[in-house]
Give the backbone structure.
Amino acid sequence: MGRHKTETAGGLTPAEDDVFGEVRKHAHSPDEHRRQENVVLAAVTDIVKERGLELTPTAYFAALMTSLDQRDVMGEPLLLATLYLLQLVFPRVPRAVLNSMFGDVAHVLLEVLERQGEVQNA
């Protein structure tokens, strides 16, 4: 157990800096959107843990971006939940990480926007 505490960009440990605390509060909400957010959050949390990483904003960011690789087979509710979780974690990811991944992130998000535009125009 001598694990050291890893600090997030805000200077807090992951437990103190729960980016998704508000989402977790609504895990049993009757609202379908809230439930979908928690389904995605649980799946992404499992992925981060399986990789042996700490539950930091950067680890969540990477896992959420990886999950968007499956956007073509995601239903709209899961896609929207994933994008919402990304919106929450984005401000907590170190700028250097965002800068290094800018091209990839922009490409994925543009594809998502194009897909949504096609769906709405159909």
